[in-house]
Recover the amino acids of this structure.
């Protein structure tokens, strides 16, 4: 699923639109990984109950509306940091909390001989992330420094990603029930969630 990330242009957004100091903007980027590490544990626990793909979809169905909600607030001139920053931190941590689940699906369903090929797509994704920063800056300038436009575009691309996850639902479906059966049969056992 494509991940259009808004992080590079978010720094400019926080500085120009929310009027945060550079130190405060850096504080956000310290908070995000801390909250993200907690959300990774939450996502892994949820995946044990409902399944990995279901968790990945649920996470996006929470994160995308948060980004749109933040956009609506800013467009309605609600620019106080104590509203916008917590939404941004929560949304970023939530949206990035399923990376271990994605990795575990890759490890479980791709042959060992083909894993390197699939992992190499990470470099393409990184390039896409850098490219999205350039495109986001260009679009922000084109729309008179309205970076909320790029947030709407990000939400649209991430929504497309949710649709692209749908075929995985059929492949990886009901694995949490299989894990429960294995635990019952063996008197213990661990469902592979979040291992990569």
């Amino acid at each position: 699923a494509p991940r259009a990330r808004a992080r590079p242009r978010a720094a400019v957004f926080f500085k120009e639109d929310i009027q945060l100091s550079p130190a405060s903007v850096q504080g956000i980027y310290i908070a995000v990984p801390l909250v993200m590490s907690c959300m990774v544990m939450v996502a892994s626990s949820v995946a044990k109950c409902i399944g990995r793909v279901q968790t990945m979809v649920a996470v996006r169905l929470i994160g995308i509306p948060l980004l749109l909600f933040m956009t609506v607030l800013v467009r309605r001139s609600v620019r106080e940091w104590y509203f916008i920053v917590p939404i941004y931190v929560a949304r970023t941590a939530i949206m990035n909390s399923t990376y271990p689940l994605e990795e575990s699906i890759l490890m479980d369903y791709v042959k060992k001989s083909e894993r390197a090929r699939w992992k190499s797509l990470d470099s393409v994704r990184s390039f896409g992330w850098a490219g999205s920063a350039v495109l986001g800056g260009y679009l922000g300038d084109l729309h008179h420094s309205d970076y909320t436009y790029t947030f709407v575009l990000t939400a649209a691309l991430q929504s497309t990603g949710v649709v692209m996850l749908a075929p995985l639902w059929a492949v990886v479906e009901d694995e949490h029930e299989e894990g429960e059966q294995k635990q019952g049969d063996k008197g213990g056992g661990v469902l592979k969630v979040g291992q990569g």
Summary: The longest helix spans residues 22-50. Residues 1-6, 182-196 have pLDDT under 50 and may be disordered.
